[in-house]
Every structure is written in structure tokens, then in C-alpha cells.
């Protein structure tokens, strides 16, 4: 007796089509491992983040960005109720970055703008060293005519990006935002 292969068509979570010989256990197992370990597409990651935020009743807005696949601004997040950005960089698909910006006070901005290039470098190093000590990535940016210090937490374990890890990271960013804000008030 001759058995003809049975083919089935499946869609994975990224809507990729797989044609599988279901009579061949190796082919079926190969499909299953591909399905389990596929990385989240940008639209799926965005959809998940939005669903998680809605589930927690957190208001948010989409932000247009050239360098990110998507960017969401959560208006009041974490234990301190601060605005938090959640985005996936186009250069690093599958990685979720959560960050917050500390706006410098007017007198700090005036002082910073009066710095020489060497003084700005020393200040940036001082801020970076502090943020490294609290396990945050930092960047000094100019946005809307104001100097700001942005602190970020990166979720790069693609298999473990879920609702709990995202909200833990939001709480962590909120805490790092507060610590960095106090650091700037004390040292600058």
C-alpha cells in the first residue's frame, strides 16, 4: 500500500504561510519549532503593547517617529505617574525600549547652554556614570527647545517580552526617572 503525503497550510503568528507534509513527523516538528520561536513582528509587538496598556486602563497616544517601528507615549505610568515612551527601534527589531525624559529646570538649561564643549562632555559622562550605577541607559537630548535627560530600560529577551515584564520595566523606568531627577537637582 502506498501512502501519499498529506499537505496542510498553516499561518504562523507573523502571517507567514507554511505548507507542511503532516505525514512526515520531522516536517511537522520543524514547523512547530518555527512557530514557537518566531520573533514578534513590529505590528504584533505594537498590538500587544497597546492591548496590555488598555488592559491596565492606561491612556496613551501614538507618536510618529522616523527611527522607530512604532512609538507609544503613555501619559501617566509607573509609581510616579510620569509620561513614558515605549518603542521598537527600526535598527533593532524585536527589542522593546521603555524610557522617560527629565526636563531640566530653566536655570539648569541656562547653565548647560553656557558650557564649553569640554564641560558638556564632562557633564554627559557624570550623568552617564550615575545612570549606569542605577542600571539605566541615558542620553542628553534637546526637545522642544528644552534640554532633557532621557533614561531608558531595554527589553531584549524577545521570548520573554510579555505584559508582566513590560510593566515591571515601566515601574523601573519611573523609579530611575525619579532618582535621576534628584541626582540632577543635587549635582547640577
Structure, described:
The protein is α+β, with helices and mostly antiparallel strands and 188 residues long. The protein has two domains: 7-37, no CATH class; 42-187, 2-Layer Sandwich (Yope Regulator, Chain: A), CATH 3.30.1460.10. 41% of the residues lie in helices and 30% in strands. It has five helices and eight strands, in the order E-E-H-H-E-E-E-E-H-H-E-E-H. It has helices spanning 25-37, 42-55, 106-113, 117-133, 163-187; strands at residues 7-11, 17-21, 60-62, 68-77, 82-89, 96-103, 137-143, 146-155. It has a six-stranded antiparallel β-sheet. It is elongated. Mean pLDDT is 84; it is low at 10-15 and 28-39.
Summarize the structure.
This protein has 188 residues and is α+β, with helices and mostly antiparallel strands. The protein has helices at 25-37, 42-55, 106-113, 117-133, 163-187, and strands spanning 7-11, 17-21, 60-62, 68-77, 82-89, 96-103, 137-143, 146-155.
Amino acid at each position: 500500500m502506498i501512502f501519499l503525503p498529506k499537505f496542510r497550510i498553516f499561518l504562523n503568528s507573523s502571517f507567514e504561510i507554511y505548507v507542511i507534509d503532516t505525514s512526515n513527523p520531522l516536517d511537522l516538528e520543524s514547523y512547530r519549532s518555527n512557530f514557537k520561536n518566531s520573533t514578534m513582528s513590529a505590528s504584533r509587538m505594537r498590538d500587544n503593547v497597546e492591548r496590555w496598556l488598555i488592559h491596565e486602563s492606561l491612556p496613551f497616544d501614538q507618536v510618529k517617529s522616523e527611527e522607530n517601528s512604532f512609538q507609544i507615549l503613555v501619559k501617566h505610568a509607573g509609581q510616579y505617574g510620569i509620561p513614558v515612551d515605549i518603542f521598537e527601534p527600526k535598527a533593532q527589531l524585536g527589542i522593546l525600549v521603555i524610557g522617560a525624559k527629565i526636563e531640566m529646570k530653566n536655570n539648569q538649561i541656562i547653565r548647560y547652554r553656557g558650557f564649553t564643549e569640554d564641560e558638556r562632555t564632562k557633564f554627559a559622562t557624570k550623568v552617564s556614570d550615575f545612570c549606569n550605577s542605577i542600571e539605566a541607559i541615558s542620553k542628553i537630548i534637546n526637545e522642544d527647545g528644552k534640554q532633557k535627560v532621557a533614561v531608558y530600560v531595554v527589553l531584549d529577551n524577545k521570548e520573554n517580552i510579555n505584559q508582566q515584564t513590560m510593566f515591571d520595566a515601566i515601574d523601573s523606568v519611573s523609579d530611575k526617572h525619579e532618582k535621576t531627577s534628584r541626582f540632577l537637582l543635587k549635582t547640577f
